[in-house]
């Protein structure tokens, strides 16, 4: 009776019926669970980002405002999202670290006032199933998803415990949001007891949500004027913040990829535009459009303490960089909108950065703006120059929109910039 049967078939022949039934049931149960894991990708989209920067050395005239290191300390950082979702992940970056970044514990919750959180919303975060993670130099990681119903414009608090001596090699200089640093592991504390506060971002580079299917993203790619320099601390009054508020009912994530000091052609306070365009713009999930407002530092920095020996670029130099961004955006089927450079007569004249503005630099700004407006090479144009300038002195910011340094807009100026964005032009939906 066993002539053509394999040993396995003989074993199965004698197995009790109840065991065979149990094996069959467990197999059927395992299949949908495996299928669920395979399909549990969600519709993940970034709802907030902060572009990483390398910490610079002391030979640069601007301070980093970073501590020497953090050790056996917790940092709690607050961020306002743009769109919501039912699940959340965070992204951490060790892009510029020379050693592994060890996260001993991480926690996510809704932010309350100051260093407090709403405890009922809090949850521990894991990375690949582990509470602790070591992030290699140059790497970025995302947390495992956690269930947390997030609404548009909600404020979230991310707490990171750093058990080992950790130099802040990867940071974002112009955070404009108070971060709280406390002793020991306080990630789950309802109110973190701070020993220090910072207004920079450390290691936190993104927050993602599992959003509705038709969600999309627009990236604001720029310098300090996009980063919101001189706007009110903790108020979310950068122009991309005001734009996010306009788009709350449209399932559009507004991602701020501004870096104060950013330039098209050179690196210093962050990598140059061509170097970071892939990471900060093109790699963002569901990105449909990017607004480029950059170039004023290329014009203003030369012959100042920021770059005393650097020659002024030509208009052709700057236009060539814009054309590279345009070409790369179009390769990825991303719509790219050019924004004119805002007025800057008198910029920083009462600071050690005097020389930021002169007539030759103003002529270069005018030439570049004329090309942005008339070349037709961008998919659309936002004329921030016209919006923010003083009608009586068009090379200057409007007095109502001037923060006082004659370079960065005030809160009111940033709001006016956001109101000037044509939403139909932003996504190419004009009839």
TrEMBL record:
Q: Which GO molecular function terms does the record list? A: hydrolase activity, acting on ester bonds
- Origin species, per record, is Litchfieldella anticariensis (strain DSM 16096 / CECT 5854 / CIP 108499 / LMG 22089 / FP35)
Could you tell me which SUPFAM superfamilies the record lists for this protein? SGNH hydrolase (SSF52266)
Protein name, please? Uncharacterized protein
Q: PANTHER family, per this entry?
A: GDSL-LIKE LIPASE/ACYLHYDROLASE, PUTATIVE (AFU_ORTHOLOGUE AFUA_2G00820)-RELATED, GDSL-LIKE LIPASE_ACYLHYDROLASE, PUTATIVE (AFU_ORTHOLOGUE AFUA_2G00820)-RELATED
Keywords on this record? Answer: Membrane, Transmembrane, Transmembrane helix
Task: Report if keyword Transmembrane is assigned.
Answer: yes
Any single Pfam family the record assigns to this protein = Lipase_GDSL
Annotated transmembrane regions: 12-31
